[in-house]
Input
Amino acid sequence: MNLTAVDWLLMAVYFAFVLGIGLVLKRYVKSSSDFFLAGRSLPAWICGLAFLSANLGAQEVIGMAASGAKYGIATSHFYWIGAIPAMVFVGVFMMPFYYGSRARSVPEYLRLRFDEKTRGLNAISFAVMTVFSSGISMYAMAKLIQAMHILDVPFARLGVPTAWTFHFSILLSALIVLGYIFLGGLTSAIYNEVLQFFLIVAGFLPLVFLGLKNVGGWSGLKQQLPTAFTHSWQGMSSAHTNPFGVDAFGLVMGLGFVLSFGYWCTDFLVIQRAMAADSMGAARRTPLIAALPKMVFPLLVILPGMIAIALPNPAATTMNAGTGQMQVLNRGGKGLIPAKVDQITGAPKLDSNGKPILDYDLAIPNMLIHYFPTGILGLGLTALLASFMSGMAGNVTAFNTVWTYDIYQSYINPNAKDAHYLWMGRVATVFGIALSVAAAYAASRFNNIMDFLQLVFAFVNAPLFATFLLGMFWKRTTGHGAFFGLLSGTAAAAIHQGLTLPLGASVGIKGGWLGAVHTYPSEMAQNFWTAIWAWCVCFVVTILISLLTRAHEEKDLVGLVYSLTEKPSEEHLAWYLRPAVLGAIVIGMAVTLNLIFW
Amino acid sequence: MGLDIRTPIGLMFAVFGAILTSYGLLSDRAIYVRSLGINVNLVWGLTLLAFGAGMLLLGMRRRQSSKKSAAGSRAEPVSPGGRSRT
Output
């Protein structure tokens, strides 16, 4: 790819602003609460956009476009029945306990509500997970910079071997994220996430405009694609008649309920943004405000993928790094999506039916290269880099908080001065990022280990929402119940995965290692059902053990459980600021979107 | 918090807008073949410039109104008008 000075200038301006915000905010960081909770002083719209942006990492932008190219508009299920209802639920029903309990983190809420061991389990697994997630994000970004040959020309000019692209990309992203979090803490991360949100919209919106204009608008796109691609619910009545390989029940329960509620309602990475709000009302509005742009994000991230696959074949062009010549690269590909190429023979890789395997992850990068001339191309690439960094930063701030408050202060050094914990937070930022870098290199060395870890995280996360739901809405739930419920839910997830296989997969990381007794039509179906089983087992075991163990004193649960907590008053708020009203509006809009794209 | 986020956002997008607009005016028309003949740098540059100016204005109005209301009073944050998208 051949970038010109104006593209580099745009990127440089962005990096200057990102670090500049950290520098300016540094003088406002006086206590650990400023550093980890942004002093609980931010208005709802800022927290809301950060809530959205923290999740808008690499996997989201690249992955959703890839899924749009692969499955079409059905990908919007991840938004319209996945994220949105969960975001409404956490804002309307759960935030009063997170924010009202004055807990400083999600694990700390678990200690207040249950006991030390439940908190420890959650804190440690979460801390490990964030480090690896940010490492994977970093790795994906470095791989993308390599694949797009962004640095080839400047490196050639400086006489640096292109093999260093990977190291340079990792180092640069690590230093920038480290810089602004080290200086300004959570406020800095949140401010930058808001900046990144606007940048991602500014970078991708013209791409969607140009792409749609090119294919003749939505109606033109419909003509180019099979009907299943432009109807989100078509064929969902049976697992065998839709590309997901999931039926409507598995979709709504697995994705809509267990996985989405498990993520949006319990993951400290996003909840932390709401905890930084300046009042209970603002904290509750945070996820609801985030839900509004979240709802239209499919247009920004899924549509480009659909356009990329709909364009006439072969259309994938790229600039040759050295010569600046256009090349047609699309042997065996479809539209802008190239086939995966065998590194040794240079021929497209084929699946078991003899069709080329498409590299869907290149949908967004190829769209940018295809439509954007130099100038706006710099803006588009900056937006892409911004999305990677906001995903990383979200993980790093969540990690330094959980490490400092829930691990260091709880088990290692409980009685230090506040200034010491502030210092610890900065130190944790440094070693958290250092560990992420190590994880990124581990990912580049041993791909299977990363797949394995992500699988383990999925097992740990699947049952979480059952624990929170029971903890917040059933006062009889006990600490022993929660702890052993979580463990058995995780075990159930592992056992289910070990007993099943997706169609066509071989025994191993994909499942079946306990002997496959059931085959699912797709990997997605297997994942959803693993989550459903984990959730149900955790739910039942938590109830049974809670009934067998001694209940908590009711006076200890005030502010932590629904039936023992005063409802937050909303009378003084204007109607459009009331969480219940906002939540109803959001749900109504999500239903409408589902109907439009039925 | 001492820094109104709208100020840096407004500044950054104004700078982006200015760079893209001037590049759009100076650049060779031939590069716009890939963007369907549309001078996207100019069009989008002007859009971002307008968005940036709007954000800066909002940030400045906020500063003035908080100066007027006596120091120390905790003003209810301005309605979330900044949610507008470009």
